[in-house]
Amino acid sequence: MKNVTDSFLSLGHWPFAGSFGFFNTDILSTNLINLSVVLGVLIFFGKGVLSDLLDNRKQRILNTIRNSEELRGGAIEQLEKARARLRKVEMEADQFRVNGYSEIEREKLNLINSIYKTLEQLENYKNETIQFEQQRTINQVQQRVFQQVLQGALGTLNSCLNNELHLRTISANIGMLGSIKEKTD
User: What predicted TM-score, i.e. pTM, was given to this entire model?
Assistant: First the structure.
């Protein structure tokens, strides 16, 4: 402590321009001295506080780094799981796509076959309907022709036959019908 006091007292003996007695009025040299004293005091007393602050900061940074590493590891693990799920889903999607295309092709062929069968049935129904209508038309024409022929024959018979000839024709027809009946019995 005596050395420090001596150093301050020896400063008073320095010859400075504008100084008077013990006080130094030169601003540049006094600021340098004051700054060195303040830094010395700060280093001596503040070393422990500064060291503690730096240690705390260092521990917080290390903890943050450690937490970040743990989070990074967890994120990487989740990323790998997500990638595995993505691969699985992509494979399933590809399989569904392939199965879907083959199912679509199968359904398309089934639909085409069903349409051909339906068309064939409709063609058959059409042909049957045409044949039925032709047969019905032929039957109607035959009935009209037969009716006209019968009416013409009856008209001719009525005009040509008299009562006696008419009775004989009826009797002959009845006899023919009776002989046919006896043969069938």
Answer: 0.36
